[in-house]
Amino acid sequence: LHLVALNMPFSGDMRADFQCFQQAQRAGLTSTYRAFLSSHLQDLVTVVRKTDRYHLPIVNLKGEILFSNWESIFNGNGGQFNIHVPIYSFDGRNVMTNPSWPQKVVWHGSTTNGIRLISNYCEAWHTADVRAMGQASPLKTGKLLYQNVYSCSNQFIVLCIENSFVS
């Protein structure tokens, strides 16, 4: 399953699932992509189909392994990954080095186990208000689910996960 970033950073007010769907289609990817975010309807841990959570590796756009499988992201260690394996945007840029994402921080709105944090998910990703808060992770920590709280006015990286494998 591919983990890919949106082509630009977003504040806490985003239509992330739609953006993931649209940008994946524009990139010629045929699978369904969902935002790597907890929402008011769904915890992050359940975004990928149950049948695909254990046996498929999570890879970047070039097929390099980020995680052994979906479940391994949520084992309580904060989604530890190798920071030397790049995360690419749908248009092929490395979000860890490209200046289009000046803040190398990823929105997620979740606990380390992928459960939504209602107090820290930018009002279900519908506000960029400076007083509202969202949970996010600095990539330099090597953890996708590091537990930092930021104002929803920040423009951060938004990731998308291929939520079902199509061979």
TrEMBL record:
User: What are the Collagenase NC10/endostatin domain coordinates in residue numbering?
Assistant: 1-166
User: Can you tell which superkingdom this protein's organism belongs to?
Assistant: Eukaryota
Q: What is the name listed in the Swiss-Prot or TrEMBL entry for this protein?
A: COFA1 protein
Q: Give the species this sequence originates from.
A: Eurystomus gularis
Gene transcribed to yield this protein: Col15a1_0
